[in-house]
Amino acid sequence: MTVRRVLIGLPVIVLIFLLQSYFWVPTYEEQTRGNPKRLQEYVTASIGDAQLLNPILSSDSASSDINGLVFEGLLDYDENLNFRGRLSTHWEIFEEAYFYVNDLATVPVLGAADGEQVARMIKEAKRKFDQTTEPLSKTLANIETIEVLPAQQRKERLEEKTADGKTVNVVVHIEEPPRIKLTLRAVDQELFINLKAILGPTYFSSFHGDRFIRVEPGDFKYKKPKYAEAYLPEVEHNPIIVFHLRPGVKFHDGHQVDAEDVKFTFEAIMNPANVSPRLADYEPVKTVDVQDPFTVQIVYKRLYSPALGTWAMGILPEHLLNRKALGDEARRQGLDPDTMSIRQSSFNRHPVGCGPFRFREWKSDQYVLLDRSDDYWEGPPNYLKYAYRIVPDMLTQEMEFYAGTVDSYGVQPHQVHRLKDDPRYQSFSGLSFGYTYIGYNLRRPPFDDVRVRRALGMAIDVDGIIRYVLYGQGEEITGPFPKQTDFYNHEVKPLPYDPEAAVRLLAEAGWKRNKKGWLEKDGKRLEFTLITNQGNNIRKAILSIVQDSWRKIGVDVRTDLLEWAVFIQERVNKLDFDALILGWSMGIEPDLYQIWHSSQSGPYRLNFVGFNNSEADELIIKIRQEYNREQQIADCHRLHEIIAEAQPYTFLFVRKWTALLDKRIVIMERDPEGKARYRKITPTKTGSYTFFFNKWIKLPDEPVFEAEG
Amino acid sequence: MLAFVARSFVQKLITLFFVSVISFAVIHLAPGEPSQVDPLNPKFTKEVVERFRQQFHLDKPLHQQYLLFYRDLLSGKSVSWKDGRPVLGKIFERFMNSLPLFLVGTLITWTLSFPVGIQAAIRRGGVYDRTTTFMAYLLISIPGFFFAYVLIIFVVNTFHVPVIGMRTFGLSGAGFAVRAMDRVWHLVIPSILGATAGIAVLSRYVRNQMLEVEGQDYVRTARAKGLPEDQVHYKHALRNALLPFVTMFGLILPGLIGGSVIIESIFSWPGIGRMAYEAILARDYPLIITVNFISAILVLIGTFLSDLLYMVVDPRIKL
Fold first, then answer.
1. Smallest Cα distance from A43 to chain B, Å
2. Dist CA A650 CA A439 (whole Å)
């Protein structure tokens, strides 16, 4: 019967054909043995795919992994988190400060004074600076030149909206009074405060810019104070960074890297058409001037100390992305050359940078392949190739690692105990740059009482959470700075776990247990809802543990799990919550403005707990403006103390990561004669094990190192 | 016939319009913003967020967004918000990746289900029938991801060969035959996994269909006139039992673009299902709506084709 034979024969043939393919596929051992090139290739895996391989446009971690290898910034952080030059060999930071001559102010001795007189006064004071007291003498010694800028006229044009929504062109005529320009050797945020000792305490504050302004049409006169503030600020700090670029560095297409590329990268970020997520970092920049092909001067509008760190951003090749290049590309693709932006360019899928690896191929959701750049300025990396595979599933990543088709594996907390000391692999671990916390809505009672917040914190066994939820892969933290940086204040002690003391503290705040065991004050029960987002199992576990601990001391707490978008839009952004569990991931720069400054506590802002402390506000601004690292660290330590004291968050923990690496991967360096020397990969002080990645190589057999020490 | 085609075309256009409105509305009803707009990132100032919204036309009223959107889609200008690439190009690339998985999966499903189902029907109530019934329910009940993990761990630990992805990573130096077979091997496990549920369900269908036909008078007649058993089963019964399955071919069509999210994610297969899933998570509206729209078209074409097929194979039906 043919039909029957076909019906049975067909599936058999199909299955045999499919299964026989097994015999063609090399096993893992065969792969490395038969393919020695595999040793010169580093393969790593990531859960998610890159979005855009363009450092000014991407904000996801996979893209930045790749961008970090293909592109190079002017500087980066070294193993101790200090800055070191990359595309720039060195840089200078100084300041130009300006203030208007205030003809109405009374200065000591002279009374009214014109520009020349004021300049002379400061010069005079400077000559005998060692006779004055500490802060002023420092400020004076720091001043390099004093110059009087003559009065001048200028016009500013802008658009304003009238009450009925029409747009009107407004011209602001400015009769600028003479101005004094001070050049400082180092940035000094106290300059004008200290100069008051010479010029009188109200010299700056009594300057009113609106006297020198005429507005056309007159309807907008009422905006004069606003214009004065914008165009005639009584004092102005202009910090300046001058970068000296490394000559002879080339993009992967052979084009020289020069100061124009730096300027171009800045302009590309600022260009509204590109919609760069990094805009906020560069908004304080006033001008970028190319002084010669290898010197670029960046002037800032105001004091902004995170500025230097922002130049770790990869530099784009101007010649491939300028107006002309984009226009050509638009014509090729049939797009409009006038509206073509970098965001639309195919560059983002075929990036050209000047980093240690050059881009070869990107298959979406499969892999990104890089080749080493042989003329990398610091010497080519040891690996010939770098492969970034996208494996969206953790278990498959693990299987691939065991089998050797991936060289590293980020161990999950529950596996650490089993795999950390596995003799087959080398392992590294460190603290991550982020923490988990419970935030209280300080606007709502009972959270407006610090004693309640402290008591709630003391009732939680953070140690237990770390031990049982994180399998020990975390550390307690007490404040908002990354624990591995110098900004973190190790003097601040965590809240003790002491439910009884918590009950006493609550009693002090007026909350007494009623007959049923719930805490009560003035007949009202201590009750609220603790929320967090769905999809994060650790937070979910904490939610139950915290609920249980709080119920034990008599707090009637309910819990709710919300879908992420609802959680953010309906609850966090609208400030509609009692307490929540959330996490922050931090940068290295200690800028806490968005998360902790009281001005950021409105709806849709990040200080959603409503933390408001005037000393903290001052410190946050001061840290932002402080260019001296020691001072910055001291200020951060104080800020950390204040926040820990106020307990607007119960700081829980920072997680630990552990990574496994094939044991055959080592660091290879060449001594002057060119002989290879091997050493073990050791993590840097801050826990980064990939810091010397360019020197890594995989050996055919597991190396034996002499005992250390 | 022509009248039927014309009528059905108009009906389908209307349906398509409603599908386009509903799928557009549903996406905007879902809370959340495109992943480019991250409200919890301190680097995202209000101005940046506003700029993103303008760029994506999210600041316009919904009906305008709808028009802009479908204008871009129909003129082929729609680009993904995630990486700025044309949506249709992206979908086509992923479609070509999912296609082999789909074809092999369907091939296995359809070639295996029939002999299994027919045998079960013939040996109704016997050990073979009970075993296949048990297996079918087992395969339907096992969660796909769990089965996938078990299978992966088993194959990797026992045979020490790679199973993840579309091909063995770093095999580019090998000869053509090896590379081709390597690709086939990487298809085997995910497509077997994808086929299991299909086989289980389809073989049940075949069995029931066969049983129903076997009870018909004409089968009894065939048997009564002394035809050999095989001929009764495979010629008289099977032919009539096949009718409903012919029409099912039309309904496979939408599966072309659906892909399988779970299997593609577990096996790191860069297919269309995974892309659509990630687009949903990232609220990449153009991509989601386009995939939706295309699958709606495929469903409509599929039902249309199965109507036509039915008419061809079953002369009793006149449209």
1. 9
2. 7
pLDDT digits (tens, 9 = 90+) for A72-106: 999 998 888 889 999 999 999 999 999 998 888 88
Q: Which chain B positions have a beta carbon within 8 Å of A391's beta carbon?
A: 164-165, 268
Residue A115 to residue A11: CA distance in whole angstroms: 97
Total number of domains constituting chain A: 3
Q: Which of B217, B24, B180 is nearest to A17 (CA)?
A: B180
Segments of A26-87 assigned E as strands: 41-46, 75-77, 83-85
Confidence class of residue A571 from pLDDT cuts 50, 70 and 90?
A: confident
Determine, yes or no, domain membership for A693.
yes
Question: For A277, which of B33, B48, B93 is closest by C-beta distance?
Answer: B48
Over residues B46-72, the pLDDT tens digits come to 666 777 777 777 778 888 888 888 888
Q: Say which CATH number the domain at A504 has.
A: 3.10.105.10
Check CB contact of B115 with chain A, cutoff 8 Å: yes
Q: Is B150 on the interface with A (CB under 8 A)?
A: no
Tell me the pTM.
0.81
A162 and A18 assigned to the same domain: no
Strands A41-46 and A75-77: what pairing?
A: unpaired
Q: Are residues A65 and A132 in the same domain?
A: no
Contacts with A, B 185-214, CB within 8 Å: 185, 187-188, 191
Task: Kindly write down the DSSP assignment for every residue of B140-178, as one continuous string.
Answer: HHS-HHHHHHHHHHHHHHHH----SSSS-TT-TTS-HHH
Does A410 fall in a domain? Answer: yes
Tell me how far the alpha carbon of residue A403 is from its chain's centroid.
Answer: 36
B291 lies within 8 A of chain A by CB: no
Give the one of B43, B173, B182 whose C-beta lies nearest to A25's C-beta: B182
- When pLDDT is cut at 50, 70 and 90, the band that residue A372 belongs to is very high
- Name the minimum distance, in Å, from the CA of B295 to any CA of chain A: 22
CB contact (8 A) between residue B41 and residue A277: yes
CA distance readout (Å), A560 to A465, A543, B200: 19, 9, 40
What is the distance between the alpha carbons of residues A79 and B209, in angstroms, rounded to a whole number?
Answer: 71
At A604-645, the pLDDT tens digits run 888 999 999 999 999 999 999 998 888 999 999 999 999 999
Q: For domain B97-266, give the fold.
A: MetI-like fold (1.10.3720)
Query: Helices A450-458 and A629-646 sit at what angle, rounded to 10 degrees?
Result: 90
Residue span of the structural domain in which A188 resides:
93-240
